[in-house]
């Protein structure tokens, strides 16, 4: 039956599975697949190269447009002020960057930071057409080695991208490093629906409908099979909160969206 294939990874399975913080030379997860850590970056890069042209369209189709509401809510909850310096990690095609630039208008600067140039290029016309597009700059770089000095950003955003890192904890530590004391982290990510009935429906949709739509629209069934697998390997909200606390973040909270399909995580860098 379909839910045996698509079940969420429980605590015992996570304990036996590769951890995101394993050192180089060990294994990590690419969806459910175990891969050498040194290979994951290239696998992720190829994945997004494949979907870049249809990425925004597929997001809207697969979420029935709800991802726009999730992103607007996330930026509103972040509490961006005019003049803030913001970095949008794994910024992709720029949706969060555009919203952040608007929230901090007219004087904020947003760095759209992503390792995948194809995704940034695909979103660039959208950014340039936005009212505050001139406030958004592009930097291609690795989220696990952010190419900025310590303590220069007021907010660090990451939307639907952190689960693709080889070492998720390292990525969060880098965000902590580049934030000013008191600076804000906002992580918007998929999670486990709270209702068991809704979760069964979501599993069927994720593992049957989404790959079919991916194949029809983008020509890649594999890319949209990896997506639900990677979601199910991502830490649950309480687990992610514990990770952020271990890193040093304070005032950690989260908010479920659409029965927990997506979750907004908020935290602040400890003040000196």
Provide the domain count: 1
Strand order within the widest beta sheet: 5-4-3-6-7-9-8
| Helix vs. strand class | alpha/beta
**How many strand segments?**
9
Give helix and strand order, one letter per element, not per position.
HHEEHHHEHEHEEHEHHHEE
**Average of per-residue pLDDT values:** 88
How much of the sequence lies in strands comes to: 15-25%
Instruction: Please name the CATH topology.
Output: Rossmann fold
Question: Can you give the helix content as a percent range?
Answer: 40-55%
What would CATH call the architecture? 3-Layer(aba) Sandwich
N-to-C span? 54 Å
Could you walk me through the main structural features you see in this protein, from its secondary elements to its overall organization?
By secondary structure, the protein is of the alpha/beta class. It has helices spanning 2-5, 11-16, 37-51, 55-62, 66-78, 95-103, 117-129, 168-178, 196-218, 223-233, 237-247, and strands at residues 27-30, 33-36, 85-89, 109-114, 136-140, 153-159, 179-190, 250-257, 262-268. It has one domain (2-195, 223-268): Rossmann fold. Helix content is 46%, strand content 21%. α5 packs across α6 and α9 (196-218) runs antiparallel to α10.
Question: What would a concise description of this structure say?
Answer:
The protein has about 270 residues and is of the alpha/beta class.
């Amino acid at each position: 039956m379909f839910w045996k294939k698509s079940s969420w990874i429980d605590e015992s399975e996570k304990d036996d599975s590769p951890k995101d913080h394993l050192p180089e030379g060990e294994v990590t997860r690419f969806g459910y697949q175990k891969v050498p850590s040194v290979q994951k970056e290239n696998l992720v890069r190829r994945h997004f190269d494949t979907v870049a042209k249809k990425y925004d369209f597929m997001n809207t189709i697969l979420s029935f447009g709800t991802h726009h509401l999730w992103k607007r809510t996330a930026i509103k909850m972040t509490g961006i002020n005019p003049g803030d310096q913001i970095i949008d990690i794994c910024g992709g095609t720029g949706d969060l960057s555009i919203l952040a630039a608007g929230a901090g208008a007219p004087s904020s600067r947003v760095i759209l930071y992503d390792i995948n140039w194809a995704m940034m290029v695909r979103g660039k016309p959208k950014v340039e057409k936005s009212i505050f597009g001139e406030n958004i700059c592009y930097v291609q770089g690795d989220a696990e080695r952010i190419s900025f000095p310590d303590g220069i950003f007021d907010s660090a955003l990451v939307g639907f991208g952190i689960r693709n890192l080889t070492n998720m904890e390292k990525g969060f530590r880098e965000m902590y490093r580049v934030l000013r004391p008191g600076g804000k982290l906002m992580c918007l990510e998929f999670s486990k629906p709270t209702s068991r009935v809704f979760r069964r429906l979501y599993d069927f949709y994720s593992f049957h409908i989404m790959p079919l739509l991916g194949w029809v629209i983008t020509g890649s069934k594999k890319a949209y099979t990896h997506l639900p697998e990677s979601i199910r390997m991502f830490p649950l909200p309480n687990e992610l909160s514990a990770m952020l606390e271990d890193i040093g973040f304070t005032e950690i909270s989260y908010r479920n969206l659409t029965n927990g399909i997506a979750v907004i995580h908020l935290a602040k860098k400890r003040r000196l």
